[in-house]
Write a structure and sequence with these properties.
It is elongated and about 65 Å long. A 5-stranded mixed sheet has the order 2-4-6-8-7, with no helix packed on it. Helix 2 packs antiparallel against helix 4 and helix 4 packs across helix 5. The longest helix is centred in the last third of the chain and has 15 residues. Helices cover 15% and strands 34% of the residues. With 360 residues, it is an alpha/beta fold.
């Protein structure tokens, strides 16, 4: 049995250790405290059990380990990656990668760990300040994309983010490093948010379409200085439902045709004409109303659903015309047929739109 223990304290420490042990049990433990530490250890062991552990405390740590054992195994390859962030006074980034290859004679293992912490004494809490923009989504959007990209609510709805750390005495310090890739919505999608409420055809209110979606930074829900949840605004509806009545029918096709005809005459622009002006669904008060923006999004049925900016396109960037009217009418006919009772709305739209739906 062999035991080695080393403790080092200082602003910079470099330690290199090489150990060769033959015996039934070998244990090596190293503890290092300092602002910067670099440790390299190489161990060759022949015996029934080898244990090596390392504990490091400091603002930055780099550790690499290589171990060779004589054994007989089949080939194995393992890779692990972990990232974590905590808004609560600590901004943590941790990445770990491990690879192991075992042959009939040799085992080689290597790992690298990097940790950064900004926790300071006297920390009391944190709050955030965000600038957002509105997003438009389909009720069937479950966040899954065939092309491997993530769909659902866009990180782009959060245009800017500031995180403020608060300390004793009310002192506030703004974080200097923000990773916008950590913006998320805690697994929620337009489909899950939409389905969290009950929707009745022909009976609609603003609550059928407008949602405030909580924003997360890593695993932490963002809040303002008063502790209120920070959210983005999302408008969600049924594809093809121009009239905002929670269903798709011939009236939606007629609305598309009327809108197109009005735009084609007298040089009118999209913000000169209300798209949803029927009594069938929720009333729209002006051509610039967010609800009319949603109606244009839902009515532009031959737009590529998976284009990266589709969620943000405005009414004047869309074209709702006779082609959309024809496609909506085709969908309505197929969806009303008893021959398609076993088909989902998604399946029917795929039949109607073909490659147009996803820009293939």
């Amino acid at each position: 049995k062999t035991t080695e223990s080393t403790t080092v304290s200082g602003s910079k420490t470099t330690k290199n250790t090489s150990t060769s042990v033959s015996g039934s049990k070998t244990t090596q433990s190293t503890t290092v405290s300092g602002s910067k530490t670099t440790k390299n250890t190489s161990t060759s062991v022949s015996g029934s059990k080898t244990t090596q552990s390392t504990t490091v405390s400091g603002s930055k740590t780099t550790e690499s380990t290589s171990t060779t054992n004589k054994t007989t195994q089949k080939d194995i390859s393992i890779t692990t990656s972990t990232n974590g962030t905590d808004i609560g006074g600590t901004d943590l980034t941790r990445e770990t990668s491990t690879s192991t290859t075992v042959s009939s004679e040799t085992t080689t293992s290597s790992s690298t760990t990097s940790t950064t912490s900004t926790t300071s004494e006297g920390y009391k809490g944190s709050y955030a300040v965000i600038e957002t923009q509105v997003g438009y989504y389909f009720s069937h959007d479950n966040g899954i994309r065939e092309n491997g990209k993530t769909g659902g609510f866009s990180k782009g709805q959060v245009k800017t983010l500031k995180i403020i750390d608060v300390y004793d005495g009310g002192r506030e310090v703004e974080r200097t490093s923000i990773n916008m890739d950590l913006i998320n919505y805690n697994g929620e999608t337009p489909e899950s948010i939409y389905n969290s409420r009950t929707h009745v055809p022909k009976v609609t209110t603003i609550d059928d379409f407008k949602y405030d979606v909580p924003v997360y930074y890593g695993d932490t829900a963002l809040t303002d200085k008063d502790g209120n949840a920070l959210t983005v605004t999302a408008y969600i509806g049924v594809k093809g439902d121009i009239t905002l009545d929670n269903m798709v029918d011939a009236v939606d096709a007629s609305s598309a045709l009327r809108y197109y005809a009005l735009l084609s005459s007298n040089g009118r622009e999209p913000y000169d004409v209300i798209l949803q002006n029927t009594k069938a669904g929720l009333a729209v008060l002006s051509p610039t109303d967010e609800l009319d923006e949603l109606a244009a999004f839902l009515g532009d049925v031959n737009q590529n659903e998976w284009s990266e900016d589709n969620w943000s396109k405005k009414k004047n960037e869309r074209r709702v015309d006779a082609n959309d009217a024809s496609l909506i009418l085709s969908f309505y006919a197929k969806n009303s047929s008893s021959d398609n009772n076993d088909k989902s709305v998604n399946d029917i739209w795929n039949e109607v739109l073909g490659t147009l739906r996803f820009g293939k």
